[in-house]
Specification:
Layout (H helix, E strand, L loop, with lengths): L1 E2 L7 H21 L5 E8 L18 E6 L4 E6 L3 E3 L6 H15 E5 L13 E5 L18 E5 L2 E6 L2 E9 L6 H21 L1 E2 L12 E4 L2 H21 L7 E12 L7 H11 L4 E6 L5 E6 L2 E6 L2 E12 L4 H13 L1 H18 L3 E5 L5 E4 L3 E12 L5 H8 L7 E2 L1 H11 L10 E5 L5 E5 L3 E5 L2 E10 L5 H16 L9
Parallel strand pairs: 2-6
Antiparallel strand pairs: 1-11, 2-10, 3-4, 3-14, 4-9, 5-8, 7-8, 7-22, 9-10, 12-13, 13-21, 13-25, 14-15, 15-24, 16-17, 16-23, 17-20, 18-20, 19-20, 22-23, 24-25
Length: 496
């Protein structure tokens, strides 16, 4: 295995670099009174940023790990320089306003005079709960809140074959250039220690497997409750005047406990999901107390790059086949299914309605394709448009969340039905999770195929779309496929 390395410098060189850095920070902070954070960029010799995340140096620190193989982007965000936690119905609007302030308050510095800056290096990580419930969160989701936006202290990213890092320090009105430089140098020493301890490639995690973990609760009771809720949803849709309720996405959870270990390991679970769900975006948000939200999602809520907006309508599900021929048969069945095509059409139409006020030149193909993942396949329609002036990424997130693929249609009627009937605090499950780069570009995914890990317990989540013709048994089986995608990646900590 190869040891990750950083360029080593002599003491005299380090002192010279420090003096240069302090001088540049002073000039930057003098330039305007609006600058409240300084971010320094570095280039690293590191193949996989996730090689850093198991280090004991990171115990007790907030982490966010992200891997999107389709765009060759992998990053690890460490610590918190600044954070905000908007709550309530206005949380997206508050996030949009906070982003505008942050964008004006950040000064970016290369590591050396004349060096370059990676403009696509995320400067903000953010997550939102599915719905805003504030202090009424269930015991399972206590402490996660309605949303979080934070600027990482250290962020290491590999993108398009190049690994770079950014170190961010607060530089408020009371902070001297010397104090800011001290913060950056302390973080740089932490990063250097992480690099020295890292080993590549990352070692394989210990997967729990079905023989090393037990479900918490009785499947029979869960099935009966599910069946009753499906029938209630169908009745509500059939009885709704003028088809005012067309679709409801019902979710459920299964809880697991390890048998042969003390607890589940969130970081190893993320590594296992990254390997198994190689066509998905894998994520892990770990709080300082060790609780973590982990998943591998096939669904991108929205992408903004150079004012170009990309999103997708994802609906309808079949399992993967036992061989290539059966896989094709299932894909053709999915494309030919009236129920699934109607569900897909409803999602596409809702996205069109949501985006039209914010974008121009909206392009929505009439016929969906089949998107294949490790355990399941879905109908997918890629949607594109150009962002209007005066709109930012958080405005798009507010308009698009929740998509009909995770909430229902019409949005407000479906959400009201879920509040009254689902009996589940989804927390951050099916909520938007993502990052923003300088200038406002970025990506948010829909945090499905996910689990909340709390030491000796894992709660996995899955849902499926219900329409008038839905069959409770078929929808139950669909949730089994989806829960398998996450439960088969749960990894164990060291055995007791």
């Amino acid at each position: 295995m190869r040891e990750a390395t950083a360029t080593q410098t002599s003491r005299r060189e380090r002192e010279g670099n420090s003096k240069s850095l302090r001088a540049r920070i002073y000039r930057a902070l003098e330039a305007t009174n609006e600058r409240h954070m300084v971010r320094v960029h570095l280039t690293l010799d590191l193949e996989d940023p996730w090689a850093l995340m198991a280090s004991p140096l990171l115990q007790g620190r907030q982490l966010a790990a992200w891997d999107a193989p389709e765009e060759d982007r992998c990053f690890l965000a460490v610590g918190v320089t600044r954070s905000r936690h908007p709550e309530g119905a206005g949380r997206f609007r508050e996030a949009a306003a906070l982003w505008e302030l942050l964008d004006r308050a950040m000064v970016e510095l290369p590591s050396e005079v004349g060096g370059d800056i990676e403009r696509e290096l995320p400067c903000l990580v953010s997550g939102f709960a599915f719905s805003a419930t504030g202090s009424t969160r269930s015991e399972l989701w206590q402490g996660w809140g309605d949303s979080a936006l934070w600027v990482p202290e250290i962020l290491v990213q590999r993108h398009n074959g190049v690994t770079r890092a950014a170190i961010t320090a607060a530089a408020g009105s009371s902070a001297t250039p010397e104090r800011v430089a001290d913060q950056i140098e302390a973080a740089a020493e932490t990063l250097d220690a992480l690099l020295r301890a890292a080993r590549e490639p990352v070692s394989a995690p210990v997967i729990a497997g079905k023989n090393n973990m037990a479900r918490v609760g009785r499947d029979a009771v869960a099935w009966e409750a599910w069946r009753d809720r499906v029938e209630a949803a169908r009745s509500s849709m059939m009885d709704a005047p003028d088809a005012s309720l067309q679709k409801v996405v019902l979710a459920r959870t299964e809880r697991f406990q390890p048998i042969s270990a003390v607890s589940f390991d969130p970081l190893d679970t993320a590594l296992a999901l990254r390997t198994r769900q190689s066509h998905c975006t894998t994520f892990c948000v770990r709080l300082p107390d060790g609780r973590a939200f982990v998943g591998a999602t096939p669904e991108e809520l929205v992408r903004l790059e150079d004012r170009e907006v990309t999103t997708m309508a994802l609906a309808g599900t079949r399992s993967r086949g036992w061989d290539a021929a059966n896989d094709e048969d299932l894909a053709r069945e999915l494309l030919a299914s009236g129920k699934d095509r109607r569900e897909q059409s409803l999602v596409s139409d809702a996205i069109r309605e949501a985006l039209t006020p914010l974008v121009t030149e909206l392009d929505i193909p009439e016929t969906p394709s089949v998107a294949r993942f490790t355990d399941v396949q879905h109908l997918k329609t890629e949607i594109r448009g150009h962002l209007k002036d005066g709109v930012n990424l958080f405005d798009l997130v507010e308009r698009l969340h929740p998509t009909p693929a995770v909430g229902g249609l019409p949005r407000q009627e479906a959400l009201a039905w879920l509040d009254a009937n689902e009996g589940l605090d989804r927390g951050w499950y099916a909520g938007p999770l993502g990052w923003v780069s300088p200038g406002g570009g970025g990506v948010f995914v829909v945090a499905i195929r996910s689990a909340l890990l709390r030491g000796g317990e894992a709660a996995a989540f899955a849902g499926c779309g219900l329409v008038e013709r839905s069959d409770a048994k078929a929808e139950w089986q669909e949730t089994i496929f989806k829960l398998r995608a996450i439960s088969q990646g749960l990894a164990l900590s060291d055995a007791s």
